[in-house]
Amino acid sequence: MVDLGLIVRSLSLLFLLAYVLFRQGRSLRQLGVTARWSDLGLGLALAGLGLVPYAINDLVVHGTLGSWLVSGLSLGRMSLLGLVSLLCAAAMHGLVLRAYIMTEVLALTSRAVLAVVASVGLEELYHFEYRTPTVASLLISAFFYWKTRRVTPIVLGICLSGLWILLHQTGS
Amino acid sequence: MFCPRCRDEYRSGFTWCHDCDVALVDRVPDEPSETASEEGDESNPVDVLEAAPAQSREGAIRVLELGLVLFVGFAYSLVTSLHHQWLGATHGFDVSGHDPTWVGLRDLAQGVPVICVLLYVLSRRGRGLREIGVTARWSDLPLGLALYALLPLVGVILLFLPSSRPFLAAATFGWHARLSTQVLAPLYLAGLLCAAAKEELLVRAYMMSEVLDLTGSAFLAVASSTCLQALYHLYQGRVLAFVQALTFLTYSLFYWKTRRATPVVLAHFTHNLLLALAPSVP
Q1: Of A135, A160, B206, B241, which residue is the least packed, with the fewest Cβ within 10 Å?
Q2: Which value does ipTM take for this structure?
Q3: Chain A contact probe: residue of B74, B76, B116, B122 with most A CBs at under 10 A
Q4: Are B133 and B266 in contact (CB under 8 A)?
């Protein structure tokens, strides 16, 4: 049910974004949705970079790497619904919280710092319980978007890192 | 170059009339003949041919907008409700045991964004809440209360359903039960009003207006609105959802006849308030 709820909520926001863009005579392409082979490589790099703050956090706080990084692969937590919800959530985070907010704040204020802070700040509020590693991870993707204006690698990065966690997480 | 619609003349180099959103033509189009106007035949065949796909596209956009508003507003409630019904984990509408402040804040957080989406969609069409029946008249209050007062009639039907007695105890004769004055907190009341407004503005006023405009069928408008609302109340169990459907049917018929949304919102608010005031369902 959690997965289904996540899918419905993510799709609601994505449909709303598509409608707002349509009404403004724009499309997802203007937000930086691309379909290039380099997206995959960049996505992999972003996924790896995004997990580094969590690894550092584990080493600093616990003195050892978490099971999510070192344990063997397990398909126990994989399900079709889980994968679809991961994809929807990644698309929602990338397109709405990163691409749309940053594009609009940049267009309205021309201040990159404000765009990055608004995007990361909102998403951090959304994940209030994770704090520092999440902020660092989000800053990486926000800077990436600011520099490249490409959102597909960000969505792929979120998907791949989520997939990694799903495949390596043990227990409930 | 001339605009075939507004007939404005453009300098060379211009190819598009941005006011009318049409391509310019080389010569000024003929004036519509007076005879044709008198006979009620105001449109020339070219305009009719151009207007047909445009109207069809507009209709498709309106359907998509209706879908979007309902999806954003109720998809989650619908999925949750069906899931609870599927699992047999139904529960009542009782809100006791929750902090009224948080319940109020939750209702506001869930209702305000959805109403804003509705306002945005309406504004993009050059419409507002007034066009879907939101009024501010003194008669709204007595009408709303009268509409609420009709609901005990639904209770008469329920007498034939033994499993609906708990509902009767709270909903129809709830004011005999222990009163919970906690729910009179301003934030809680604001949340209740917002929740009622969200449901009635979207599923009643907006959905019925659009279905009526798009299909011209009052039956379809009333049925779709009532059924959707009953479906996302299935979490209360089939019997209570059926009872709720009768209430929603009453609201839908009232809206269809009067096209006034405010009394329906007030009736829904009163209904929810009295349920919250008497939460001790056996």
Answers
A1: A135
A2: 0.83
A3: B76
A4: no
